[in-house]
Amino acid sequence: MMYPSRKCQLALDAVLYIAYHSAARPVSSKEVSAAIGFPVRYLEQIMQRLVHENILRGVRGPRGGYVLAKDRRKISLGDICAVVNDNDNEPEPVGSPLGRAILRPVWESAGHYLQKELASITLDELCRKAQEVDSKEPGIAQRADFTI
């Protein structure tokens, strides 16, 4: 089974969390980190790339954090993955000449299919699904509480 890269999966999870929870106030990277279980230091690098590419917008100040830079209906999963995937660093083909000649086109085709599929799914669709899941399993999408 083919999956997006680990970095892409992390970015998708973070942006989905922000899209689902940022209605009332910005979501801090610390909160996102706690929710998805990934170190803030690494996550912050990804978030900055997403800000640079106008997927997220950073809000400064003591109650700052991240919000979506545009309407969630206009952000696809493909948009997010395109920002974080390093296609410039594509690995050298491995295997036999026959395997490279026959299998490489198969993997490329599967990759194009995955990109096309991700481009067809918006954050809005996922947030609606999250609402359905949260109504059936309350607390699954619960926001972390960092108030003192």
Main sheet characteristics: 2 strands, antiparallel
Q: Could you give me the name of the CATH homologous superfamily?
A: Winged helix-like DNA-binding domain superfamily/Winged helix DNA-binding domain
CATH class: Mainly Alpha
- The CA-CA distance between the termini, in Å, is 44 Å
Please estimate the helix content.
55-70%
How does this model look, in words?
This protein is mostly helical. It has a single domain (6-87, 94-136), classed as Orthogonal Bundle (Arc Repressor Mutant, subunit A), CATH 1.10.10. 55% of the residues lie in helices and 5% in strands. The chain has a two-stranded antiparallel sheet with strand order 1-2. A hairpin with a 5-residue loop joins strand 1 (56-59) and strand 2 (65-68). Helix 1 (6-21) packs across helix 2. The protein is elongated and about 55 Å long.
